[in-house]
C-alpha cells in the first residue's frame, strides 16, 4: 500500500492522517471545512480541531472525494452519526475490495446499527476493518506511544493494513472480531460520561473504580449479545479504551460528564465544543439496543436518562445505588 485516504478532518482524523504520513504513505485528508483544508495545505496545521500540532508535510487535504479515488486504503473517521452520509458521498470512488478501516465509535441513532453495518449498506464493495483502542488524538499526532486494536475478518488483509500504518510509536494489534472492537468503542463513550459525573460530584476514587468495573461488565454483556467474543473486550479496544476514556478530562465524553456532575446543563456542557462527544449521541441508541436484546445495562440506562432530561443526576445515582444486590459474575 502506498496511498491512504482519511475521511474526516476532526482531531482524530487529522491524527490518523499524521500516522499514515509518518508510515510513508501518500496521504489525503478529506475535510468538510474549508478552513481545515486551507490550514493543512498552507500551514501544515489544523488550527480548528487540533491546534498546536505541526503536521507532516506529506499530509494533503481536500474537500473533494475524487481526490481519494486513487487511495489503496481508506480510514473512515467521520463522527458515527454522520458516517453514513460521508460514506454514501464517497462510495462512487471506491473500487471492489477497497479496504475501509472504520475509526468512528458509536451506534447509529434510529437504525441502532454498528458502523460495519453502515459500511455494508453504503459501500458494499469494500473490505471492512475496525480500528479502536486507547488513543487521544493529540498524543497520537505528536508521536507519543500508542497501541490499538485493528480488527479485520480477513487476517491477511489485516496484517497488510497493520504493516502499512504501523510506526515505531503507533502499534496496531491484530484481531478478527470486528463486533467486539466496535461495541467496546461505542459503549465506553457512554460510560465515560458516567465516570465524569461521578468525578464532578466528588464521589471519590472508590466509586470511580467501581463504575469502571461494573461498566466493563455491561459493555461485555452487550457485546457478547451482539455476537462478539468476550476476550476481545478484555483487550485494547475494550478495557484499554475504557480505562483511558474514563480517567482523564482530556476525554471529550468525560468532560461532558464532569460538567453535568458539577451541576451544568447538557447545553452548557456542550457549548463551545467543536469536537463531537460521541457518547451523547450514542447513549440513547445504546439504551435502545440493549433493551431490544434484553441486556441489563443500568449505568448506560442512567446516562441516557440524564441526557434525555428524564432524571436528574442525583436521582439517577440514587437509583443505581438502590439496585438489589447480586452475584458479581451474574
TrEMBL record:
InterPro entries: 6-PGluconate_DH-like_C_sf, 6PGD_dom2, G3P_DH_NAD-dep, G3P_DH_NAD-dep_C, G3P_DH_NAD-dep_N, NAD(P)-bd_dom_sf. GO terms for cellular component: cytosol. Sn-glycerol 3-phosphate binds at residues 105, 133, 135, 188, 241, 251-253. The active site is at 188 (proton acceptor). NAD(+) binds at residues 8-13, 137, 252. Gene3D superfamilies: N-(1-d-carboxylethyl)-l-norvaline Dehydrogenase, domain 2, NAD(P)-binding Rossmann-like Domain. Pfam families: NAD_Gly3P_dh_C, NAD_Gly3P_dh_N. GO terms for biological process: carbohydrate metabolic process; glycerol-3-phosphate biosynthetic process; glycerol-3-phosphate catabolic process; glycerophospholipid metabolic process; phospholipid biosynthetic process. Residues 177-317 form the Glycerol-3-phosphate dehydrogenase NAD-dependent C-terminal domain. PROSITE patterns: NAD_G3PDH. Substrate binds at residues 105, 252-253. The keyword Transmembrane helix does not apply. Its EC number is 1.1.1.94. Pathway: Membrane lipid metabolism; glycerophospholipid metabolism. GO terms for molecular function: glycerol-3-phosphate dehydrogenase (NAD+) activity; glycerol-3-phosphate dehydrogenase (NADP+) activity; NAD binding. It comes from the Bacteria. It is found in: Cytoplasm. Its main location: cytoplasm. Keywords: Cytoplasm, Lipid biosynthesis, Lipid metabolism, NAD, NADP, Nucleotide-binding, Oxidoreductase, Phospholipid biosynthesis, Phospholipid metabolism. Residues 5-156 form the Glycerol-3-phosphate dehydrogenase NAD-dependent N-terminal domain. It catalyses: sn-glycerol 3-phosphate + NADP(+) = dihydroxyacetone phosphate + NADPH + H(+); sn-glycerol 3-phosphate + NAD(+) = dihydroxyacetone phosphate + NADH + H(+). NADPH binds at residues 12, 32, 105, 137, 252, 276, 278. Catalyzes the reduction of the glycolytic intermediate dihydroxyacetone phosphate (DHAP) to sn-glycerol 3-phosphate (G3P), the key precursor for phospholipid synthesis. Belongs to the NAD-dependent glycerol-3-phosphate dehydrogenase family. HAMAP family: NAD_Glyc3P_dehydrog. This is Glycerol-3-phosphate dehydrogenase [NAD(P)+]. It comes from Phenylobacterium deserti. The gene is gpsA.
Amino acid at each position: 500500500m502506498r496511498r491512504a485516504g482519511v475521511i474526516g478532518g476532526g482531531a482524530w482524523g487529522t491524527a490518523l492522517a499524521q500516522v499514515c504520513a509518518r508510515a510513508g504513505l501518500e496521504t489525503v485528508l478529506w475535510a468538510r471545512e474549508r478552513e481545515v483544508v486551507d490550514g493543512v495545505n498552507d500551514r501544515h496545521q489544523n488550527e480548528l480541531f487540533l491546534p498546536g500540532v505541526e503536521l507532516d508535510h506529506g499530509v494533503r487535504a481536500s474537500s473533494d472525494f475524487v481526490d481519494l479515488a486513487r487511495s489503496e486504503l481508506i480510514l473512515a473517521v467521520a463522527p458515527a452519526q454522520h458516517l453514513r452520509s460521508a460514506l454514501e458521498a464517497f462510495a462512487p470512488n471506491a473500487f471492489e475490495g477497497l479496504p475501509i478501516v472504520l475509526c468512528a465509535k458509536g451506534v447509529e441513532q434510529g437504525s441502532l446499527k454498528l458502523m460495519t453495518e453502515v459500511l455494508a449498506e453504503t459501500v458494499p464493495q469494500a473490505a471492512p476493518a475496525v480500528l479502536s483502542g486507547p488513543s487521544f488524538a493529540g498524543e497520537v499526532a505528536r508521536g507519543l506511544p500508542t497501541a490499538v486494536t485493528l480488527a479485520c475478518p480477513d487476517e491477511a488483509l489485516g496484517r497488510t493494513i497493520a504493516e502499512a500504518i504501523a510506526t515505531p510509536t503507533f502499534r496496531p494489534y491484530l484481531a478478527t472480531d470486528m463486533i467486539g472492537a466496535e461495541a467496546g468503542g461505542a459503549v465506553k463513550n457512554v460510560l465515560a460520561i458516567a465516570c465524569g459525573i461521578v468525578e464532578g460530584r466528588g464521589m471519590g476514587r472508590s466509586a470511580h473504580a467501581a463504575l469502571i468495573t461494573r461498566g466493563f461488565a455491561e459493555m461485555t454483556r452487550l457485546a457478547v449479545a451482539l455476537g462478539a467474543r468476550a476476550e476481545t473486550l478484555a483487550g485494547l479496544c475494550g478495557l484499554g479504551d475504557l480505562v483511558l476514556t474514563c480517567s482523564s478530562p482530556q476525554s471529550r465524553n468525560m468532560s461532558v460528564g464532569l460538567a453535568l456532575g458539577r451541576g451544568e446543563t447538557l447545553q452548557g456542557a456542550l457549548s463551545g465544543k467543536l469536537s463531537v462527544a460521541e457518547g451523547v449521541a450514542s447513549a440513547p441508541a445504546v439504551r435502545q439496543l440493549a433493551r431490544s436484546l434484553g441486556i441489563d445495562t443500568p449505568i448506560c440506562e442512567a446516562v441516557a436518562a440524564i441526557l434525555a432530561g428524564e432524571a436528574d443526576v442525583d436521582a439517577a445515582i440514587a437509583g443505581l445505588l438502590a439496585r438489589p444486590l447480586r452475584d458479581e459474575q451474574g
